[in-house]
Design a protein that fits this description.
59 residues; mainly alpha; 88% helix; 0% strand
Length: 59
C-alpha cells in the first residue's frame, strides 16, 4: 500500500514539473488517499498487537 502512495507521489511531482495541473492534482489526490489508508491500517495493527500481547497468559 505504501508503494502505491510513493508511486503516485512521484507521478504527481513529475506532472507538476511539466505543468500538467489536472494530472498532478489527481495523482496527488490518489497518493493522499492511499497514505491515509496506510496510516489507519498501521495504527490499527499497532493497537491490535498491544491488545494481543496484554491478553497472552504468561507461565
Amino acid at each position: 500500500m505504501l508503494n502505491y502512495a510513493i508511486v503516485f507521489f512521484v507521478i504527481a511531482l513529475i506532472a507538476a514539473v511539466f505543468g500538467f495541473g489536472g494530472i498532478a492534482a489527481s495523482a496527488a489526490g490518489i497518493a493522499q488517499i492511499l497514505f491515509y489508508i496506510f496510516l489507519v491500517m498501521a495504527v490499527l495493527t499497532f493497537v491490535v498487537s498491544l491488545f494481543r500481547k496484554s491478553t497472552e497468559r504468561r507461565p
